[in-house]
Amino acid sequence: MQNHLFNNAPTAMLLIDPTSNQILQANSKAKKLFSLKEADLANYKVTQFFHECLEQLIHFTQQVLIQKDAWSSDLSIKVNSEIIHLEINATQVEEYILMSCQKSVESFARYHQAIVESNYQSGLAHWRKNETAFEEIERQNQLLLTAVGDGIYGVDDQGNTTFVNLAAEKITGWKREDIIGKKMHEVMHHTYPDGSHYHAHDCPIYAAFNDGEIHSVDNEVFWSKEGKPIPVEYTSTPVTEHGILIGAVVIFRDITERKRIQQKLLNAMEEVDSLKRRLEMENAYLLEELNADFNHHQIIGQSAQVQHMVQQIELVAPTNANVLIIGESGTGKELIARAIHEVSERKARPLIRVNCAAIPAELFESEFFGHVKGAFSGAISDRIGRFELADGATIFLDEVGEIPIQLQGKLLRVLQEQQYERVGDSRTRNVDVRVISATNQDLRALIKENKFREDLYYRLNVFPIQSPALRDRIDDLPQLVKHFINKVCRRINKSQPKVSLAQMQLLEQYTWPGNIRELENIIERQIILAKGDKITFDILAKQTNNIQVLSKTVAPSELMSATQHKALEKSNIEKALLHCKGKIYGNNGAAELLGLKPTTLASKIKKYEISRHRFM
Q: What CATH number labels 293-466?
């Protein structure tokens, strides 16, 4: 009889063993609700149905065991991929628990049915009055909520959607029939913009009906029905009834257009900053060119060597071919580079000059290609490199043989592919640059010593131009002297002195190891020392005589090659370090012993790769 009553109970009944997690008995409604088979009843585990809310199930079970009975609406089961929310009454029977389970939807419907019946019993007039008032309120609410341009969602204290207005449907594409009764977070708020999972515990919408606080967010996305992210700002406001949190109202708006305008503004500001920095650097180059007082459009001289060099400039300048200017120090290689640039189609932009011999080895890459903020210690902001500054223009690499071998590969890539990356940046940038390089070294000899890349040499040496030494173009001396006298006298505001034929002969007899730069310096010095309207160069006669005497008294066998001189200097430094036990600076240091500045000695030690620690 008892089994008959249990099996035909009006609600789903389960008798469970909380210790073994077993379902001991189930009546017919429970078997239907939980999809149980009588033959396999012993194989079911209680927790396999409540795995979406195990924590609540454990708390509820403990409450029953302590209080002997309990009630809960927080539990749900998953049957055949369907989640069913339950209201459960439970009581302790000996060491077991008897549970009466009912669908929350059915309980909710019966509750409202009871209200309807109560109103009906109160009289038809009262019912019509309530119905009319309810309909009027509902009509007014619907008008208001439909007219609002912002999307509005209502959610209960479980996160299930209870209300959707028309604006929300238009913004997200989710119709009310798609989302009502489903967890809002799982439908449209489940993932961050970067694709990572957005856990419900972190959801500000859910937080509102858990902590009772208003949560405002302006940097998240809702996911549309098509699976596209929609940038939104929203406010989740808790809803209470009789002091109990029962859900939340979410008001949101699509800020896609605002985000687009903000990003466009940021991009414009970055572009303005970049152009500003570039313009400042270009202005600095232009100002330096104005102050340099170079003759950009004319190379002084009528000698055959100069005429040949001018012809080469006229041939190569209109092209984009890379040029390698070869010549001794002081012969005017930069003047040749300027002449090429001024005749080229790139002359509207300044010539960007880089003295490769003056850049520390560790800063070459940053100087050439720029860096981003934080790329290395001291990089407090983004910096434009020389190649980026020369985009659309010409870059002049003076003393190109001084470029470190480890950077030459990256320079070769710019020449081959016209692409590079800033230090610390993964973005590849394109650049249109013509390269003019100059050197006073024998690059072929450096290639044999593995100090210069052969492939880079051929890339730079597309069109070589020889810059003749002054001693090879003595015929140009009168014009050069006249030019430099005019230049110096204008600068120091002094009347121009005359140069006698005898003094000009002294200039022509001198070998000019410092070339045109030495000529200019000597002329300036002698103008400053000149008394009256004549200028003399007797000092050159003394230097010439000394050289001639030296050449007559010194046999070729007594001369020392550059390699021998370097080896001798290195040996001398090592002997000094050995004597001073590795000490360089201060009293009784190697610098004092050799009569050198400590910084000069340190530079030579680095040059000859001497480890002074061996002598300590």
A: 3.40.50.300
147-254: same fold as 2-108? yes
- Residue pointed to by tokens 């071998």: 405
CA angle centred on 403, ends 433 and 519, rounded to 5°: 90
- CA 140 to mean position of chain CA atoms: 53
| Rounded CA separation 357/502 (Å) | 39
* Confidence (pTM): 0.47
φ, ψ at 190 (rounded to 5°): -85, -15
pLDDT band at 166 (very low <50, low <70, confident <90, very high): confident
Which distant-in-sequence residues (6+ apart) come within 8 Å of 313 by Cβ? 299, 336, 339, 340, 343, 465
Token pair 């003295």 is found at 355
Contact 462, 325 (CB under 8 A): no
Calculate mean pLDDT across residues 450-464.
Answer: 93
Closest CA to 222 of 256, 258, 261, 246: 256
Give the DSSP letter string of 296-361: SS-----SHHHHHHHHHHHHHTTS---EEEE--TTS-HHHHHHHHHHHSTTTTSPEEEEEGGGS-G
C-alpha closest to that of 541 among 515, 502, 501, 513 = 502
Question: What percent of the chain has a predicted confidence (pLDDT) above 70?
Answer: 87
Dihedral angle, C-alpha 434, 439, 445, 448, nearest 10 °: -40
The residue behind tokens 């003394």 is 542
Closest CA to 314 of 334, 336, 296, 340: 340
* Token output for 335: 């003047």
**Fold classified for 473-558:** Helicase, Ruva Protein; domain 3 (1.10.8)
Res 130: pLDDT: 47
592 token code pair: 């004092």
Interatomic CA distance for residues 552 and 499, integer angstroms: 31
Query: Other CB atoms closer than 10 Å to residue 475's CB: what's the count?
Result: 14
**Does residue 554 surpass a pLDDT of 90?**
no
- Alpha carbon distance 459, 411 (integer Å): 10
Residue 477: both structure tokens together: 């001396």
Residue 570: Cβ-neighbour burial (10 angstroms; 0-12, 13-18, 19+):
middle
- Per-residue pLDDT tens digits for 64-111: 988 989 998 888 888 887 888 889 999 998 889 999 999 888 887 787
Identify whether the C-beta of residue 33 lies closer than 8 Å to the C-beta of residue 50.
Answer: no
Instruction: Spell out a b/e string for 167-184, using b for 16 or more CB atoms within 10 Å of the CB, else e.
Output: bbbebbbbeeeebeeebb
The CATH number for 2-108, chosen from 3.40.50.300, 3.30.360.10, 3.30.450.20, 3.30.565.10, is 3.30.450.20
Class of the 147-254 domain?
Answer: alpha beta
Tokens of 439: 């050197």
Residue 172 backbone phi and psi in degrees, to 5: -100, -20
- Provide the H-helix boundaries in 477-616: 477-492, 501-509, 515-529, 538-553, 562-579, 590-594, 598-607
Q: What is the pLDDT of residues 467-513, one digit of tens each?
A: 999 998 988 888 898 888 888 888 888 888 888 888 888 888 888 88
Q: Where are the domains of the chain?
A: 2-108, 147-254, 293-466, 473-558, 562-615
For residues 137 and 134, give the distance between their C-alpha atoms in angstroms, rounded to a whole number.
5
Name which of 108, 105, 112, 75 is nearest 90 in CA terms.
75
